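Researcher: Last one for today. Full complex below.
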Amino acid sequence: MSTISEIETLLGQVALKDRAAFGTLYARTSAKLFGVTLRVFNNRAEAEEALQEIYFKIWQKADRYQVDGLSPMTWLITIARNHAIDRLRARRTRPGDLDEAVEIADATPGPEAQAIARSEAARIHACLDELPEARAQVVQGAYLAGETYADLAARSDVSLNTMRTWLRRSLQNLKDCLSR
Amino acid sequence: MTDDPTSQPEDPDIPLAAEYVLGLLDEDAARAFEERMQRDGEARADYAFWCENLAHMTDTIPSEAPPAHVLRAINERLFPEETRVGGASWLWGLLIGGVLTTALVLFAVFGLQQGGPGNTRPELVATVAAEDQSLFIAAAFDAESNALQLDRQAGAALPGRALELWLILPEQAPLSLGVLADGAQSTVQLDPSLIDQLTGAVLAVSDEPPGGSPEAGPTGAVLAVGELAALDI
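Model: Here's the assembly. Have a good evening.
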């Protein structure tokens, strides 16, 4: 299992255009990032293409890693998720498309995944559990499916303003929980 | 998108950084937040806080190794000059370092070959390697030219000695393919009679006096072996 410092070292080398380090970084992290793109797209071919583009970005932007102030895996996951969401949104024709409802259902982890999440002790999972399920799903919908306020409001059949208020309140609750 | 009037961005009750990370801000608000991050350490800290915590929502997503062609495409796009046999030495470095499997590296490197003169995709490949990878030669058989293309990625002849390449067909004595050239890359022409027997044939490298073995077979230690196999996509 890669340690945090190994990824950090590799990123530093990639920033200096070290191709061997880039290959090792790919070997260590591509399975994780591929999993993320598969979840976002629900489509293998798109996920594979997006993954290529993600690694181009990683190659090009590795020198920014230190500047962004994130831990190494978070930095990589953020690049992957942001790129995937951008790409997903770019090909949507209509906001609030109900066909995307399937993605949200998949985003809720099953009991086994939840057990794994708890064992990894990332606070977000416990804090999401503290929210009403519908609110937690809204946060997940935004993060993993790139839903906009318009999408989320349409899905819950409420006004844009109501959804904004709900989500901001949920985010505040999460922040309080995470900061405990 | 038409907006109802919203609270001011500076309102501490609104987790603006979270909305930014989630991608919920409109274009103007997002750019404004980015500008604010440039000058405000607290905004940067908020940004990092949300990135770190929200990224953990991916903890429960199963990892899955991507198919080999993804790495090939990345290599092609980022390092296009490395398209000849034996190019992409950084990938071979990964194999030697035990980071990637042989199949993955072979495909990523040799799979780059498209049509074109001297650049046809090889039918058979082998990694002729010592157990500890101290000697490592990539080999690809090019059916169009009836030649074995070789790339010595690691190791060399001992001083005052030579490396000789042998082809070992089932139930036959080793057949010399000559002393390996000094350079890393070389081509060995094969007798047409051998072409049909190459699948599963073994390539071996032995340590010999300069000019190669004085006898029909190897006289020195066998340093590396590898089996020729079809490139499996």
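Chain B has six helices and nine strands. Chain B touches chain A through 49 residues (CB under 8 Å).
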